[in-house]
Write a structure and sequence with these properties.
Layout: H1 5-26, E1 37-38, E2 44-45, H2 60-65, E3 71-72, E4 80-88, E5 97-104, E6 112-120, E7 125-133, E8 143-147, E9 156-162, E10 168-175, E11 184-192, E12 196-199, H3 205-208, E13 218-224, E14 234-242, E15 247-256, H4 263-270, H5 273-280, E16 282-287, E17 297-302, E18 307-312, E19 315-326, E20 330-337, E21 344-353, E22 356-363, E23 377-381, E24 400-403, E25 409-411, E26 416-420, E27 425-435, E28 438-445, E29 454-461, E30 466-474, E31 477-480, E32 486-490
Length: about 500
């Protein structure tokens, strides 16, 4: 009996379906959910936790320091929150690799850990290959740097930060030159109540062109002199790398006498971070250790507006004051450039005397270029404090309406304003304040960026009412912008 073509086709289709089912049973689809690997060049954005109570940070302010795109080549484990990321072509390789600092929320009072994410050429995947504990524990203070610290072109990673006792910390890991061992080994760890610096020196030309090794950099730490009655006396401890032991060891201690000043006032300043902020408020001028002003360089601290302005060689850099922590000798500040979001500066301020401070600045290593001058050094207050009676206080908020060439302005007593007509109405917040005896008015429009939505005006009295002249506040004080005056005429 002949079989029709339709029957043959039906049998063939069912045969193929059956064969497919057999293949799926024998060779099931592999869905790799291993968190330690990802596809080549894949970037996983770790979402930030919106619930502040689950962050276990020291303050809500520190959470906003982490408001940047922290991305990891692969996702971390559950409960691990990214703190800082450093991505680069380490060891001169062709593919980016990563150091990721993270905190484990499962652990109580968890320290900051560091993990290394490498790229495996054989599997074409990123893999998490190493973890290490650091001495830091405070979020928002972590900075990761890499350098040839030892001069032998080995790979060292430095993690700066602070711990729960408000001490500065430094942990250094070195890429192990011996194969078949742990990838990185800890060669230095320190927590002190002062500052920690790497003493970089100029290496020989033979090192620069790759013909010879260079000198190892030393590490300097300033600590409190417990045997002295003067609270400003310090001890500088120098650590040097010992090739035999493979770690940094102390090689020298030097006593550094501080200024002999009234101790009660010093203890008040160093024991109260808000009082210390008030002390440094204003303009500070760079000075050499001999007391000479060898560079035309200034730093302006503005705690009320949470800004820090650096000025030198005609360049003005404005940083937002993100967070500050009291230290043994002053204040540790984390700041962020208002124009370059990934440029952060950590600033250690120490009290030298009742009219001078010492500043040490460390840039975020993620910046690929350098701007401005080195800011480390001693600073004195610029100018003398006026002894004349203070001007009458300025009322921050008013309840009034004015006509002007830019529209009708309504000031409300709770600090908001409206400007324009019913069809074109802009809203925001305002405040009247005083700087150096001048009355100023600041507007901040709703929905605008911090740079574009903020305008400051000098307030003067005119024949018809208030006269506003737009200005810019900087290290040199008040600068008029010559935009043309705006007269505010009162509306009955």
């Amino acid at each position: 009996m002949k079989i029709s073509f339709l029957k043959i086709l039906t049998i063939a289709v069912f045969g193929l379906i059956g064969l497919g089912i057999i293949v799926m049973v024998i060779f099931p689809f592999q869905n790799n959910t291993n968190s330690s690997q990802s596809e080549q060049q894949a970037r996983v954005v770790i979402p930030r936790v919106p619930d502040f109570s689950t962050l276990q940070t020291d303050s809500i302010t520190e959470h906003f320091i982490l408001e940047e795109d922290l991305t990891s080549k692969i996702p971390l484990a559950d409960g691990e929150i990214i703190v800082s990321v450093l991505t680069d072509f380490f060891d001169g390789g062709p593919v980016e690799k990563q150091f990721v600092a993270f905190r484990n929320l499962v652990e109580v009072e968890s320290p900051i850990y560091l993990t290394f994410i490498d790229y495996e050429m054989a599997t074409s995947r990123y893999t998490r290959v190493w973890n290490g504990r650091t001495a830091a524990s405070r979020l928002g203070t972590i900075q990761i740097q890499t350098m040839d610290l030892l001069g032998d072109r080995s790979h060292c990673v430095l993690v700066f930060g602070m711990n729960a006792r408000d001490e500065n910390t430094l942990t250094i890991f070195r890429k192990n030159p011996v194969p078949n061992r742990e990838i990185f080994s800890r060669i230095f760890e320190l927590s002190v109540d002062g500052t920690i610096d790497v003493r970089e020196t100029q290496r020989a030309y033979a090192y620069q062109i790759g013909q010879n090794t260079g000198e190892s950099f030393n590490i300097s730490a300033l600590i409190w002199d417990n045997e002295s009655s003067n609270i400003l006396d310090q001890i500088e401890v120098i650590y040097s790398f010992n090739a035999n032991t493979g770690v940094f060891e102390e090689i020298n201690r030097t006593r550094i006498p501080g200024s002999q000043v009234e101790q009660r006032r010093v203890r008040e300043l160093l024991g109260n971070p808000l009082l210390f902020e008030q002390f440094i408020t204003g303009l500070w001028h760079f000075t050499s250790p001999q007391g000479d002003s060898e560079r035309n360089q200034y730093v302006y601290f503005d705690p009320p507006n949470r800004e820090i302005i650096f000025y030198g060689d005609g360049i003005q850099q404005i940083f937002t004051w993100r967070n500050s922590t009291a230290t043994r000798y002053g204040l540790h500040i984390i700041s962020q450039n208002i124009s370059i979001a990934n440029l952060r500066r950590s600033i250690d301020i120490e009290l030298e005397s009742l009219d001078s401070i010492r500043i040490r600045v460390r840039e975020d290593i993620r910046l690929r270029f350098n701007i401005g001058n080195p800011w480390d050094g001693s600073y004195i207050q610029a100018g003398q404090i006026e002894q004349s009676p203070p001007p009458p206080p300025v009322i921050s908020h008013i309840n009034a309406s004015f006509d002007s060439r830019i529209g009708r302005i309504h000031f409300f007593p709770y600090g908001t304003f409206e400007i324009g007509s019913r069809n074109d109405l802009s809203q925001g917040i305002y405040t009247f304040f005083r700087i150096n005896g001048e009355e100023l008015l600041e507007f901040r429009l709703n929905g605008a960026s911090e740079q574009q939505g903020r305008e400051v005006f000098l307030v003067e009295n005119g024949d018809q009412g208030m006269v506003l002249n737009q200005i810019r506040l900087g290290a040199r004080g008040i600068t008029r912008l010559h935009e043309g005056p705006i007269t505010l005429t009162p509306v009955d």
